[in-house]
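The freezer alarm interrupted the setup, so I double-checked each line after restarting. Inputs confirmed:
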Amino acid sequence: MNEHPTTAAAAPVARLIEEFHKLPGVGPKSAQRLTYYLLRMPAAEARALAEAILEVKERITFCSACQNVTDVNPCRICASDRRDRTMICVVEEPLDILALERSGSYQGLYHVLHGVISPMDGIGPEELKIEELLSRLRSEEVQEVILATNPNLEGEATAMYLTRLLRPLGPKVTRLASGLPVGGDLEYADDVTLSRALEGRQEAQG
Amino acid sequence: MGTPRIYKTEAIVLRQRKMGEADRVLTLHTLTHGKLDAKAKGVRKTTSRMSGHLQPLNRCMVQLVQGRTMEIIAGCETLESFQPLREDLDRLSRALYAAELADRFLAERVEAVATYRLLQETLRHLQGDADVDLVLRRYEMKLLEHAGFRPELDRCLGCEVPMGPQRNFFSPMAGGTLCPSCGAGTAGSRMLSADGLKVLRLLQRASYKEIERLNIPPALAQEVERHQRSYIACVLERDVNAAAFVERLRREQQRLEI
Ligand SMILES: [Zn+2]
Ligand SMILES: [Zn+2]
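Predicted 3D structure, all chains:
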């Protein structure tokens, strides 16, 4: 019989390995490595890490307007009077907002979908924050929605789906310009490329 | 004969998932080695030169290196990108369904040249003028046949009489048609109209060229789809994920047309 790697370890160790294994991108081997790293860590550091995790869960919520992660609601971007409220840039993940803010070339508001349509994995539009976006468009004075999902198959599918849904509601719907390499993730794009993609955005296809 | 450590093959990318920081694992339908998983390193970085070639539904020439747990993609070049599929959500959703279905039917590392050619031909026809749903129905029939699950449509699976041009039954569990007297008492069997049977048989033997000229009423198309889908669910012992999205698009389209 092939023994499961965690069954040989003491119960608390096995439990931590299992917990790490649940995280995205962490395989069984990485989970073991992280666990044994923590075992050798000074107790104070381990406590600081555990507290940081708890604090995030207790203090951080999602902005009721844009769905970004925030410690105040509405978030600082949504509450700011220096942002252009006629524009909403739609992104897949909160990390994408960081990338776009870093580029410094966008002054409008955001909306985080928290995912992307992935038909083969059974992830449909109902799993994303699309209803929340629609209700913003109904109640706010939005003139342009920029679709900034990743330039890959799922990002494009999501953009096409949203274009169909949003266009009848009135706003201009645009898509980031090509120039972002197909298959690359937005969060890895450099500032210059992102600024160019924003400037060169075009009317989206549905 | 074993596979050399480094080899080249043509492949269609069926699906992909993220792995680690910037890698992806791709499920490839290769021409020479059937379906297999392969790791593409660093392709989520915007500096990667491979990422564009490795998008799902791309047909490409890949260079594979045998790794410890799975193949690693060393190089890749697009042969056919099926661009029209990527620019139209109705076509794209059907193409994704076709790719998922191939993935579910194929065994790992079992050569499947006929299925490969079928998928390639199907993706091409999904770009054309034919009704995209009829293209999928014909694809399903052929795929079932290649996988060894060709449904019986000529005789009753209960008493072996040839099927007549009347209302019959279709039983996913039995794997095909039942005559009125055998079908009525069989659990899970569903009514099959005379026209429904005709269309199913046509899909079984027709080429895509013949399908292009076909135009069938929506109710009949629905009946045929229902039978094929329940049969496929029975064979695979699960639903096909992408079907839900196809259905949703169709529903939302109808709402707009009303
Ligand atoms: Zn906000
Ligand atoms: Zn019979």
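Quick read of the result. The longest helix of chain B spans residues 218-236.
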